[in-house]
Write a structure and sequence with these properties.
The structure is a single chain. About 25% of the residues are buried. It is built from five helices and nine strands; from the N terminus they run E-H-E-E-H-E-E-H-H-E-H-E-E-E. It is α+β, with helices and mostly antiparallel strands. Strands 2-6-5-4-7 form a five-stranded antiparallel sheet. Strands 3-1-8-9 form a four-stranded antiparallel sheet. Helix 2 (about 55-70) crosses helix 3 (about 100-115). The radius of gyration is 17 Å and the shape is globular. It is about 30% helix and about 40% strand. It has one domain (about 5-190): Alpha-Beta Complex (Cyclic Phosphodiesterase, Chain: A), CATH 3.90.1140.
Amino acid sequence: MSKVRAFVAITIDKKIKDTVNELQNTLKKSNADVKWVEPKNLHLTLQFLGNIDEERLPEYYRAIDDSVSNISPFNISFAGLGVFPGSGKPRVLWIGIKEGKKQYIRLHEELSSTLGQALLLNYKDHKKDKISPHLTMGRVRSKEGQDRLLTAFKKNQSFYGGEMKVEELHLIKSTLTSTGPLYITLKNFPI
């Protein structure tokens, strides 16, 4: 049985990717040990599915279609910077979502519920955890340059990345390689 590593996501407009790339280039000057997300790979993950059976893809397609049936297109904007788990030991560098946060959360909950009811997610993957909508732009690999990075981060705290309209979701296949992940869209789902 062939497996596909997959997730459901909102893809990011080129204009916003370009703006985020400019910010990444500014932050790279700190020479911190960070694995930056390539602009072409920037996305908002709604639901990570893990390694799923390829032959079950049609079931995922139906469940995702069902989950977006009562959702209308909405605007989303990117503003502010943050880190997970906290500035004491940052691991993930992210940009916040300003406008559209409630719609994003509702969409995430609809997806989780529908996929869970169809037995396409494990309970731990669709329980009602508090989610924090964000756009990941980098992952800290070590403490090297961390102080300079956090200083640069604070200087850019008022970052505004732009606004876009969310009109579809994407089921994306992720293949991990030594040079980074390769993403291929398996199916688009208009909302």
